[in-house]
Amino acid sequence: MGVDQLSAGKSGVTPMMAQYLEIKAQYKDALLFYRMGDFYEMFFDDAVAAAEALDIALTKRGKHEGSDIPMCGVPVHAAEGYLLTLIRKGFRVAVGEQLESPAEAKKRGYKAVVKRDVVRLVTPGTLTEDSLLDARRHNFLAAYSVVRNEAALAWADISTGALSVMPLAPVRLGAELARLAPSEVLVAEGIETDVQAIADDMGVSLTSVTRGSFDSVSAEKRVSALFGASSLESYGTFSRPEIGALGAIVDYLEMTQKGNLPLLQPPVREASQGVMQIDAATRRNLELTHSLSGGRTGSLLATIDRTVTAGGARLLEQRLSSPSLRLEVIRGRLDSVSYMIEQRSDAANVQDALRKVPDLDRALSRLALDRGGPRDLAAIRNGLGQAADLAVADYGAELSNDLQSALRALSGHEALLELLDAALVAEPPLMMRDGGFIAPGYEEELDESRQLRDEGRGVIARMQADYVNQTGISALKIKHNNVLGYFIETTAKHADAMMSAPLSETFIHRQTTANQVRFTTVELSEMETKILNAGNRALEIEKRLYSGLRDAILQQSARITQASRGLAEFDVSCALARLAVDENWCRPDVNESRDFAIEGGRHPVVEAALRKTGEPFVSNDCGLSGGDQASIWLLTGPNMAGKSTFLRQNALIALLAQMGSFVPASAARIGLVSQLFSRVGASDDLARGRSTFMVEMVETAAILNQADDRALVILDEIGRGTATYDGLSIAWATLEHLHDVNKSRALFATHYHEMTQLAGKMVGVDNATVTVREWEGEVIFLHEVKRGAADRSYGVQVAQLAGLPSLVVDRARVVLEALEQGEREGPTQKALIDDLPLFAASQAPAPIAKTKLNKLNQRLDEVHPDSLSPREALELLYELKALREGA
């Protein structure tokens, strides 16, 4: 039975279940985690769905109209792991907590239900817990806004506070989502169908919200109020779609976080012209942040990442995903890397310090959302401590401009650091409820409570000694029972003295027994109360102090964020310097020209993979320097020779240079690349009913429709998915369009050798080939690229290397020779077919396998007839005969 059915007639439902249904009705599109003591319980359809998704037992709790109510649950202490599984499987989760204790509820009546309500709606874009996030990646929540013919995209990472927005042509939505890789995208109701295909292609969760969330008038008020400003003009000039997208994010966060907004930074407006444009297909083909298998391993990012902090890792990915188009930015970053290379001892010391830096941004965000704990306080302390050490370090030479700016952000936190140092123990517990995170000596009242909690007997013993001294009665004792609590007991003969002045002013008579008289004092009664409540009191004091420390940190949040950015800047500069030294990379000369001259270029990922096997990587030059003309290399050569690797490595070199990194080459001169396009490899897109050839044509069309004269285009095997003449025609026309219309720099790999004629007809088109050698009928790949054209494709030899049966390989040689002869002699198609006994293979005797003949020849080469005895000659004859028959 579903919740909707049950809520239609709730008569007979228990008060607790009625409460559950009332809350669930507000969150119909989410699973409701309903807190019951130490478990989050789910009921009805939620329970069925969650039990299947989490692979946990589905039980039951009570009945309704004769049917069992399905139920399942997860422990509160392990809830984060279950949340992650549900989010990854596309669910949203409403977390309903108990807002009071059962004891407080009973004050309202014996059958009163504990108050509960949703305190948070968990969605892919609103995660903050370390266990639910990848520390080395941003987790963006994006919003796409459309107003008439204008559009904009805003994105925020509530785990770090980053908030950005940019104007956006609708055609660029896929490319920008590929760049940012958000976890969740918000769109207004009614335009989901326009975005759904792109979101599915990106693997992004799409969430539709009311159009009112995107209304620019209310959105401006909402965003301005968030930052305590009268308007957004103090942060820049924003268009209506940009304001709408920002407002939708803030509205969604207010809804999901139940009004407890994260600590967002003021919005930063990004210009689309400020970064290299790279579409989604190119990012996939080049495996920038993820390999084609979907994981991080094998990607460019995994290969170059030498960062030691979470913030530095996120900054590195951001720069890799968004290479700059501003020369001053690129050169400034390269200067920082150069400094760290030249001052290697400084770089080593900086990295040693950075290894101790926790994730300041995410600790700060959790504190702002009130989801933090003592370790987040310690993370801020430890991070600022390392920042302070780096701020006063002695650097061997003047830092680059970027590093000087970063260094300035690391200082000025002395007061907060001193406060946290004094207040916190070295290693705080994870949870606040565990207590013990405030350092001894910081708060006198806390120390006293702890002493009473931990040393109650000692405190009572000291009080007893004080009373003995005060009264002079050595027989005086302080005792305890469950009726009176703590009391002072003495013999009857001393009772008169204690009940007479001046002792009677201190000691209050409580009880007289046959042999003893019992007293108390105001001090003892207060101490008793303190001792009994000392544990709770100590924890309450720590909670109060935690709140004070949290507030002190949040007051300095902007400066802490700047310090975190400074630390990340140092980390990325050190990491790229270490990469350049370890891998022997060079500093590129990035300039305003249209040059692309690479000497000794290498593919960083392939080179790293080959190193593990002990094989060297063959470096190659590339020169695309056509001035105002197009500059295109038409690359021919066999499969498996390294054409695709050569194409990709030059694209990656351009990208690395403009992100501000040294590059895998011995020298590189690169004119700014505005757009990077790659069409290398393709597969069926069965979900959309598109064949491999259709995917190839769609990607090629996108390139030809968008590439400008500063683009770098790499194309591999255009037209190979259709008939030979069709494919050749498409490839030919594509190259002409790149040359005549786009005027781009391009590397164009093809097996259509007819196209090599274009090099003599079009200015700026040059032939290049990947060299091979043939030896004893086998092809050897040299992986060297040189000027000139290949004479053939060596497809049959590659097929042989792949392990095709020798019968197939030899038959292919016969067919190929006949086809080539027919082409040279120019027969008609009919005559050529007639000449080829294509269906005679079954009657033809099987040729001797070349590999076996090679073994026969090799054995003969080893024989020295003059040295053989008659018996040895006879045995050799049998051996050779066996080899021939085995063939």
UniProtKB/TrEMBL annotation:
Keywords: ATP-binding, DNA damage, DNA repair, DNA-binding, Nucleotide-binding. ATP binds at G637, P638, N639, M640, A641, G642, K643, S644. The keyword Mitochondrion does not apply. One of its GO terms (biological process) is mismatch repair. It comes from the Bacteria. SMART domains: MUTSac (SM00534), MUTSd (SM00533). PROSITE patterns: DNA_MISMATCH_REPAIR_2. GO terms for cellular component: cytosol. GO terms for molecular function: ATP binding; ATP-dependent DNA damage sensor activity; damaged DNA binding; mismatched DNA binding. SUPFAM superfamilies: DNA repair protein MutS, domain I (SSF55271), DNA repair protein MutS, domain II (SSF53150), DNA repair protein MutS, domain III (SSF48334), P-loop containing nucleoside triphosphate hydrolases (SSF52540). Pfam families: MutS_I, MutS_II, MutS_III, MutS_IV, MutS_V. Residues 711-727 form the DNA mismatch repair proteins mutS family domain. The keyword ATP-binding applies. This protein is involved in the repair of mismatches in DNA. It is possible that it carries out the mismatch recognition step. This protein has a weak ATPase activity. Belongs to the DNA mismatch repair MutS family. This is DNA mismatch repair protein MutS. It comes from Shimia abyssi. The gene is mutS.
